[in-house]
């Protein structure tokens, strides 16, 4: 099985995230799950060349439209964005793991926007200060089976804007309010897990977080997913 990790660089780089370091940790976890791993920093070119043999796509990249981004890298040439290969992958069935700032990434790809189910939106989404927090496992999705609540040192995204149905897997609590921090979605024959954790490598030092990622990778490996018409039992509903 081949896996492609999109690691933030160029217009997908951000001053707050050390993508080379976190992508290396993710590569180790994905390799442990049995994949042959390729880490690419030329994000748009990697998407345009997405081959039929790639079973897993990991998005660990930043926001190309972040405020102030025009002060750094030049605007992308529109010809560099070619969504056809990603559209085809979603149609045939692919597993997608999106981590942390990936919720603000790939804004030029409509299929990705529809697939992820929720976004980081400027002036709406936020996070408390980096620190230790408890991650609460919720729901009945297969990814959370056998897992317990865990602690992690991380930056916990809050106020993410959901634009479609999600199947919640984990939440964190801030000021008495629970915020979804890990969720799953099925899009046709493709599967996606969004994990809002992963600000830096300290996040991956948590055994509980590593176990959650391992479970997510196992679920994502079962693609093409059966169509809903083929299922004897309807999927567990999520919360919008």
Summarize the structure.
This protein has 240 residues and is an alpha/beta fold.
The tally of strands reads 11
And the CATH topology?
A: Rossmann fold
Order of strands across the main sheet: 2-1-3-4-11-10-9-6-7
- How much of the residues is beta strand, in percent? 25-35%
The CATH first-level class comes to Alpha Beta
Q: Could you state the CATH homologous superfamily?
A: Class I glutamine amidotransferase (GATase) domain
Radius of gyration (CA) equals 17 Å
Question: How is this structure best described in words?
Answer:
With 240 residues, the chain is of the alpha/beta class. It has one domain (2-230): Class I glutamine amidotransferase (GATase) domain (Rossmann fold). The protein contains five helices and eleven strands; from the N terminus they run E-H-E-H-E-H-E-H-E-E-E-E-E-E-E-H. A nine-stranded mixed sheet has the order 2-1-3-4-11-10-9-6-7. Strands 5-8 form a two-stranded antiparallel sheet. Strand 10 (177-187) and strand 11 (190-195) form a beta hairpin. The longest helix is centred in the N-terminal third of the chain and has 14 residues, at 19-32. The radius of gyration is 17 Å and the shape is globular.
